[in-house]
Amino acid sequence: MAQAGTTDEAGTPVAHEPLSPGTAEGQRRRPAGPSLRPALVVVGLALFLVLAFGIGSALNHNPTPKAPLPSRVNGTDLVAQPSAATLRPIEILGTPPADVLDALVLPRGAHTVSVTKWSGTTQYSGKMTFRLGASQAALVAFFRTELHAHGWSIVNVGPARNERGATEVLAQRASADGWFWEAGVVVFPTTFAPGSSPRGATRFSLDLYQMPDAT
Predict the structure, then answer these.
(1) Does 198 fall in a domain?
(2) Cβ atoms of residues 139 and 107 within 8 Å
(3) 191: helix, coil or strand?
(4) What's the distance, Cα to Cα, between the start and end of the chain in Å?
(5) Which of 17, 62, 101, 206 is close enough to 84 for a disulfide, judged by CB 3.0 to 4.6 Å?
(6) Which domain holds residue 75?
């Protein structure tokens, strides 16, 4: 059966080329939308970065530093332990600051004898006195070693003024509060009471001063 066609203006028939199967199939399909491949690539890259940063953060995480443990001081049989809790009686309204108190240690077993608190009328000055079953020489070596090890600058080690037979260890350090602080440890002569330890007992005092600058 002949296929009807159209004619041009002169009446000449115009042939129509049949649609190919491929062309017809393409016309029946829904027009293609934008590709999802670029979006999937972006999502994949974002997930990779999240995982990479998460793993890196876990590997580089610095755990909260633990409080220093008691440790034996070289050259003595004394054990150093943090003193911030023991020195709390001379702390008033955050003075002395934490970085000063945390830089001090005391020999384990020291017993508090007296406390002199800051009056608050002048620059800070506080004092605590202790007693320990140890020799004078051991305590001087203890504070000289430990103050230096905790960032204090040793200013002087020698006879204490107005205290016969006593030795003073004097040290200074700067603080985050903008002041310099001075620690003066006076170690008194060892005493031997009847029935006491063969090495006797020694009294020592720790004075803390707030200073406008280093001297």
Answers:
(1) yes
(2) yes
(3) strand
(4) 121
(5) 101
(6) 71-211
